[in-house]
Design a protein that fits this description.
Shape: globular
Number of strands: 11
Bound molecules: S-adenosylmethionine, 6-(5-methyl-2-OXO-imidazolidin-4-yl)-hexanoic acid, iron/sulfur cluster
Strand order of the largest sheet: 6-5-4-3-2-10-9-8-7
Helix content: 40-55%
Number of helices: 11
Largest sheet: 9 strands, parallel
Length: about 325
Amino acid sequence: MYIRHDWALPGVRALRDLPLLERVHRAQTVHREAVQENKVPLCSLLSIKTGGCPEDCAYCPQAARYHTGVEAQPLMETPDVLAAARSARDAGATRFCMGAAWREVKDGPQFDRVLEMVRGVRALRLEACCTLGMLTSGQARRLKEAGCTAYNHNLDTSRAAYSSIITTREYDDRLRTLQNVRDAGITICSGGIIGMGESVDDRCEMLRTLAAQDPHPESVPINMLVRVAGTPLAERPPVSTLEMVRMIATARLLMPRAMVRLSAGRMQMNAEAQLLCMMAGANSIFFGERLLTTGNPELAQDMALLAAAGIEALAPQA
Ligand code: SAM
Ligand code: DTB
Ligand code: SF4
């Protein structure tokens, strides 16, 4: 399989614009060839530090400046996080992802506690993923030493559209953190959101930027905006679920071996739309009744969906 890092926008756009059935067919073909094991890893999310964030990300219910009703909570205690990780593992999760509403990591007791959480999650034989905001290279190295498997840091949209969504940091800050993560030997989870008012070219440009990374991100989450009252994007018109299918198929075609994750927004999608996303190359979901602060389908509902489609969940290691 030919892995490329030099896509240009028109080429990406041409893939995105293919007729639906042709696009799904091609993505499915690439998927079967590139991803040998056709099993779906299940990731469970926990917000370990909620709300009160100084950043102004226009989509985010955790930004302190918007009044969204999310109650700010300090960094959780390690035993509570590990109890949640154990329940997630018992429910079938293979990866446990810990999210903190921080602009960036600061060295000190709080970061030390996160490192302790990572070690504890690994001791449960789960993959440990963190999403903590910006990281220096030294912090990335310490996370790696603690056993961190993956780091989530989304580009969210194109460079051109970035400043219409976030003004408190720059696109290059994002890329720098991704480089620090890569240099430390932690796998990269990076994707974005659709439905924020961006153009189709912005969506394609974001995928192009991800595919320009060498190596490609191991994991690419595609989120549909969860419109939260109180955020500046609360009144955005919903995007069609077929746009999720387009994005997922295009991500699969550009990054054949990546784990493409059908992430936020599944509450707004029926079972058939979610299955179409899986046919188009999605091979991972967040499961559990909560994402970070917003809802996600019920566990039983997800298990029924996977069973009906004959999709096997990847077995937990322990
Ligand atoms: N503070 C860290 C950061 O910004 O990288 C980590 C947590 S942040 C909540 C992780 C990601 O969640 C964001 O990059 C964004 O892509 C996604 N996200 C946040 N709010 C969302 C929403 N309302 N709808 C869809 N995705 C959302
Ligand atoms: C990602 O791309 N999506 C997840 C995870 N990475 C951290 C977060 C989605 C958050 C949706 C809004 C919320 O629940 O607060
Ligand atoms: Fe803060 Fe992350 Fe939300 Fe932005 S996305 S406001 S950085 S928690």
